[in-house]
Amino acid sequence: MSIKLSHSSKNTYLQCGEKYRLHYLEKYRPVTLSSALVFGSAIDNSLNVMLENKDNPEILKMTIETFNRNWEQGENSLRQVVDMPLNPDIKYSKYDQDPDLLEKSDWAELFKYDKSFFETKSEIETLMSEVDWVDISEEKRRIYNYYNWLCLKKKAELLLTAYYNDILPNFKTIIAVQKKVELIDEAGNNLNGVIDFVAELQDGRIAIVDNKTTSTEYEEDAVATSEQLATYQAILNIFAHDTDNDWKHEIKACAYAVMSKKLIKDVKKVCKSCGKENTSTHKTCDNVVNGSRCNGEFEKTKSFKVKTQFIPGTINEEFEHAVIENATTVKSCIEMGLFPKNYSSCENQFGSPCPFIHLCHGKNPKGLVKLEK
């Protein structure tokens, strides 16, 4: 039996063999879908447009329009989400929401669906610490999700604008976007993946670049220890030295292009009466004018900044070989039907319980749906 293995599926196996079996062999999927998957897919599709049309003066506008279409549809690599803005089965992160991003028209829309929105929001967030997401009423999940969906729509425009201004200038030329790679061994086993893009950097090096939206800052040495980038570099450099392969670019570097979803906010208060900017916590202006307290109302203005990181680096050949050997070992274990359970990861996988925990521990497929093989 030949096996197709990607970086994602290999990592799933290393995290927990039983999780790999249930997901890839038994075809179980969570009923709920992480917002990170759908949002990441919409951002990726938008960045593809930006990268493929790098020198078009209208490219930022085109990129944002592409995101908005994708965010309405909610399409991702696993399935297509219907009615994305109000879909109750999307599970959002606490880092997705930011009420300061919403305008009066957004709040009006929210209160149209629920006159006591803030009470509903508070109730849902309390319930989320006590029960599974699917156990909360569908209507309440819809309202809460519309709020999160609106916040991410606003946030995406800021992220894409920051990418255009801060990250895109690092590339002299774009060589390939969404480059598919696969390495097939003598037994027909397939190690594959899709590279976000390959570019010529301003210093002339050809680099694999991985786009990331995140809530945590990346370490400056993140590239050197990335198994995913090492896998892609190894495959492309094998191709570059294969006379029968069309790929002729030797990879000399890899990089992460990172956009943080945790925005840097600046709120300014300026008195409508005397014009002084105020940093106090007073509700009215405390500036003294002609011997008397001004007491004027404040006009508040908010600005947002996205923290970006462009982290280039190199990966040594020894690490490349180790990563490929690691993948070979995983394929051998799968061939032998070895799917060990890693009980230490049951309660904490990216901050939440494993979606397969009920099926794994009690044969109860709660929260899961089985796809046709």
Uncertain residue ranges: none
Order of helices and strands: EHHEEHHEHHHEEEHEEEEEEEHHE
The major pleated sheet works out as:
6 strands, mixed
Mean pLDDT across the residues is 91
Number of strands: 15
Shape: globular
Classify the beta-strand content into a percent band.
15-25%
What structural class results from the helix and strand content? alpha+beta
Give the helix level as a range of percent: 25-40%
The number of helical runs is 10
What integer value in Å does the Rg equal?
24 Å
The rounded distance between the terminal residues' Cα atoms is 16 Å
What oligomeric state do these chains adopt?
single chain
Structure description:
The protein is an alpha+beta fold. Among the domains are: 23-167 and 339-370, no CATH class; 264-305. The protein contains ten helices and 15 strands. The protein has helices at residues 7-15, 17-25, 35-52, 59-73, 104-113, 117-128, 138-167, 227-240, 317-335, 357-362, and strands spanning 4-6, 28-30, 33-34, 90-91, 171-184, 190-201, 206-214, 253-260, 264-271, 277-278, 288-289, 292-293, 298-305, 308-313, 368-370. The strands form five sheets. Strands 1, 5, 6, 7, 8 and 14 form a six-stranded mixed sheet that branches. The chain has a three-stranded antiparallel sheet with strand order 10-9-13, with no helix packed on it. A two-stranded antiparallel ribbon has the order 2-15. Helix 3 (35-52) runs antiparallel to helix 4, helix 6 (117-128) crosses helix 7 and helix 8 crosses helix 9 (317-335). The protein starts with a strand and ends with a strand.
